[in-house]
Amino acid sequence: MPKFDVDKIHVKSMKVYYDNSTQTKVSEKPFLVQYESQHFRCKTTLTLEESVANSHWTVGLVQACDGMYLENRYGKFGSSHWEFHPMSARRHKMVNDSDGRQYPFYSLTTSKCEIPRGTVAESEVRLHYSDHFYPTVAWQLPFCGGVHLTDVIRKQDFWVWLVALRRQRSNNEQFHLGRDELFVLKTMRWRYTMHLQFDPHQRLGRRLKAVMDEQPELPIICETDKSVPLSAMHPPHCNAAQSLIWYPRVPGERQELLVPPKQSIVPWDVWADEMLPTGDRDRLRRPSNLRICPLWSDDFTIGVYRRTSRAGLATAASVTGPLAIASSSSAGNSAGLVTGNSSSGRTFLAPFGPRRKSNSVNKFI
User: Fold this and answer.
1) Alpha-carbon gap, residue 132 to 292, rounded angstroms
2) Of 117, 137, 144, 203, which has the fewest CB atoms closer than 10 Å, so is most exposed?
3) How far is 258 from 283, CA to CA, in rounded Å?
4) Which superkingdom heads the taxonomic lineage of this protein's source (predicted)?
5) What integer pLDDT is reported at residue 279 of this predicted model?
């Protein structure tokens, strides 16, 4: 029986789309407004060839955010902004968007499958997930001087990858750089924009003036696969990294931290210096439950993607940056690859055979 490898995984179908059966819903309540966005859905069907797996594999869907603008505007007095420090401070390229239970995958259940060591039966695997936004926004903040909410503006960009992980150890809770191998099977892209306008002078239930949620482009499956930054594979995740900060427009007023992050990639005093340069430090306290996560000073990209040569044969090529491969040469050989160094000093992977020059290897940034 043949050995299980990434070439035994076939993408039968892939679909990313906005669900037209869902739409933006806005509910006005006494102290807050709650909105629900249209749903984004990702579905894929895979087939596995009958084979024997010498390693534990995980196949699943990874989502990360690389663009975030979320403003709750309170007239001319100021705005509160949800922000991700790793991106706002330009320390990381992206923020992983998972539930935080098993990085890097979107969720524990429907977005991934495990392939343990041993016999792999010929089978079909279906993976899927749905994403939408369901936040609440206060009509009035203590810093607003009686001014109520007038606008909610949301713009976010996401990457989605269908990946296969060859794990050195079974049942790992998260990806381990230098020990696990990452293969990119498909790359997707979606963006979401929305603008809600309110008239604060109207009575409750009639304040919503306009909903602008027509998307400028549909989700796409990329023709060329994109490599994965380390930040998309590791903590923190979006819900834990986000913070809500008040930005006043009145001269002399200071920033205020309304909701602190639960996870940070820098010590608290560094976070405060970078995110609240005009804030009142005497009132700023380190959150008691704050967790410090790894900081990738060089947030390089990793992953091996497959391409089809003119002869119709599946080959492997690499991306820029050090790669997530096991340190032993036997692990590299088991992937059917050899390692080398480009003229820029970066590591790359190439198919077995004569080593190619760096400009002959496809690289994505």
Assistant:
1) 27
2) 203
3) 12
4) Eukaryota
5) 78
Chain position carrying tokens 């430090």? 281
pLDDT above 60 (res 351) = no
Cα end-to-end distance, the chain, whole Å = 38
Q: Kindly calculate the radius of gyration of the chain based on its CA atoms and give it in whole angstroms.
A: 23
**Phi/psi at 141 (5° precision):** -115, 155
User: Within 10 Å of residue 58's Cβ, how many Cβ atoms?
Assistant: 22
3-state helix, strand and coil shares in percent for the chain, rounded to the nearest 5: 10, 45, 45
- Domain ranges within the chain, ordered by starting residue: 6-297, 303-365
| Helix or strand run (H / E) with residue 217 | none
Q: What are phi and psi of 43, to 5 degrees?
A: -135, 140
Question: Which helix (DSSP H) or strand (DSSP E) does residue 123 occupy?
Answer: strand 123-131
pLDDT tens-place string over residues 229-269: 999 999 999 999 999 999 998 888 889 999 999 999 999 99
- Residue 182 is encoded by which pair of tokens? 């990452």
| Residue 228: closest CA among 97, 130, 94, 358 | 94
pLDDT tens digits, 71-93? 999 998 999 999 999 999 999 99
Helix and strand numbers, DSSP H then E, in the chain: 4, 26
Amino acid making up residue 248 = P
Nearest Cα residue to 82 out of 280, 239, 274: 239
Number of C-beta neighbours around residue 199 at 10 A: 13
Contact status, residue 275 vs residue 90, Cβ threshold 8 Å: no
Q: What angle do CA 118, 121, 124 make, to 5 degrees?
A: 130
Using 50, 70 and 90 to split pLDDT, how confident is the model at 171? low
pLDDT (0 to 100) of residue 251: 83
Instruction: Give the whole-angstrom CA distance, residue 85 versus residue 263.
Output: 10
Tokens, residue 64: 């990360």
106: nearest Cα among 159, 171, 155, 176: 159
pLDDT range class, residue 106, cuts 50, 70, 90? very high
Contacts of 240 (CB under 8 A, 6+ apart): 100, 261, 262, 263, 291
